[in-house]
From TrEMBL:
<keyword id="KW-0808">Transferase</keyword>
<protein>
    <recommendedName>
        <fullName>Phosphatidylglycerol--prolipoprotein diacylglyceryl transferase</fullName>
        <ecNumber>2.5.1.145</ecNumber>
    </recommendedName>
</protein>
<keyword id="KW-0472">Membrane</keyword>
<keyword id="KW-1003">Cell membrane</keyword>
<dbReference type="GO" id="GO:0042158">
    <property type="term" value="P:lipoprotein biosynthetic process"/>
</dbReference>
<keyword id="KW-0449">Lipoprotein</keyword>
<keyword id="KW-1133">Transmembrane helix</keyword>
<dbReference type="GO" id="GO:0008961">
    <property type="term" value="F:phosphatidylglycerol-prolipoprotein diacylglyceryl transferase activity"/>
</dbReference>
<feature type="transmembrane region" description="Helical">
    <location>
        <begin position="228"/>
        <end position="245"/>
    </location>
</feature>
<feature type="transmembrane region" description="Helical">
    <location>
        <begin position="40"/>
        <end position="63"/>
    </location>
</feature>
<feature type="binding site">
    <location>
        <position position="169"/>
    </location>
    <ligand>
        <name>a 1,2-diacyl-sn-glycero-3-phospho-(1'-sn-glycerol)</name>
    </ligand>
</feature>
<comment type="function">
    <text>Catalyzes the transfer of the diacylglyceryl group from phosphatidylglycerol to the sulfhydryl group of the N-terminal cysteine of a prolipoprotein, the first step in the formation of mature lipoproteins.</text>
</comment>
<keyword id="KW-0812">Transmembrane</keyword>
<feature type="transmembrane region" description="Helical">
    <location>
        <begin position="265"/>
        <end position="282"/>
    </location>
</feature>
<comment type="similarity">
    <text>Belongs to the Lgt family.</text>
</comment>
<dbReference type="InterPro" id="IPR001640">
    <property type="entry name" value="Lgt"/>
</dbReference>
<feature type="transmembrane region" description="Helical">
    <location>
        <begin position="202"/>
        <end position="221"/>
    </location>
</feature>
Length: 290
């Protein structure tokens, strides 16, 4: 019995060692270069690429549908601010409420005071669900300001959101954050800045899922330029947040309080979006237009 136990332990250790050796090792510096206190990060480039690519695609849509570029420029400002503010507040309120309720200024300021000294922190912590809420709020304000139909602009904007999300998740991969659970799959990744454990590259799973969703929505739009109002938005909500819900099973929880939960915060926040999507898909067109 003692020999079998030792053999089993040795076999397990050997298997773990082989997994580590055969896994993809990821240890890239997330900062591309630094000049003084300023550092250009891959994440920032991915975030910028998300907005640039989205703008180009939206400009193509606006021109085909007879909308002005000036209108798109206004929309871009609303979306940028809505995304940043919503994602930041979403992280602070959904994931670290206890800390930020005691330090409210750190929600909106990219620095903090430590022993009387300023420490530049940037905005460390952005939540995609908060970003989604921020975008929807920005769209509502934009539609009121410009007298643009809310559902029309929403049905068009969601065509590019999945692709933008893919860029952001790629940025998370460069940052070695939002990591996956331990895994023995051939494509497992060891995020050396975190630990020496082979893990699911959950960020890449999500990025790939978002690219597929982008292709589906873009194809649906190209085949039917005038679907019923809210239909594409509904499909987007079901597909994107359904994928998010499923892929959370491959991720490590972001905060310790989630460890005792059957479904983590990301999954719980995805459910209302999916239900809203189903409602829009099956709701009668004449009801949507009210």
């Amino acid at each position: 019995m003692h020999i079998n136990t030792n053999l089993s332990k040795f076999t397990g250790q050997f298997t773990t060692m082989i997994s580590i050796l055969t896994a993809i090792h990821w240890n890239i510096d997330p900062v591309i270069f630094e000049i003084g206190s300023f550092g250009l990060r891959y994440y920032a480039l991915c975030f910028l690429a998300a907005f640039v690519v989205s703008y180009i695609l939206m400009l193509n849509i606006f021109k085909k549908e007879g909308k002005s570029q000036e209108l798109l420029d206004q929309l871009s400002i609303y979306i940028f601010l809505g995304t940043l503010i919503g994602a930041r507040l979403g992280h602070c309120l959904f994931y670290e409420f206890d800390y930020y309720i005691q330090h409210p200024l750190e929600m909106i300021l990219p620095f903090r005071m430590i022993n009387g000294n300023f420490e530049l922190t940037g905005f460390q912590g952005l939540a995609s669900h908060g970003g989604a809420i921020g975008i929807l709020t920005a769209l509502w304000l934009f539609s009121r300001k410009t007298k643009t139909d809310f559902m029309w602009i929403t049905d068009r904007l969601i065509l590019v959101v999945p692709l933008a999300g893919a860029f952001v998740r790629l940025g998370n991969f460069f940052n070695s954050e939002i990591i996956g659970l331990p895994a023995s799959v051939p494509w497992a990744v060891v995020f050396e800045k975190v630990d020496a454990v082979p893990r699911h590259p959950a960020q890449l799973y999500e990025a790939l899922a978002y690219v597929v969703i982008f292709v589906i929505l873009w194809t649906m739009y190209q085949r039917n330029r005038k679907p019923k109002a809210g239909y594409l938005f509904g499909v987007f909500l079901v597909l994107l947040f359904g994928a998010r819900f499923a892929l959370e099973f491959f991720k490590e929880n972001q905060e310790a309080f989630e460890d005792g939960m059957k479904f983590n915060m990301g999954q719980l926040l995805s459910i209302p979006f999916m239900l809203g999507g189903l409602y829009l898909i099956f709701r009668k067109p004449k009801e949507i237009s009210k």
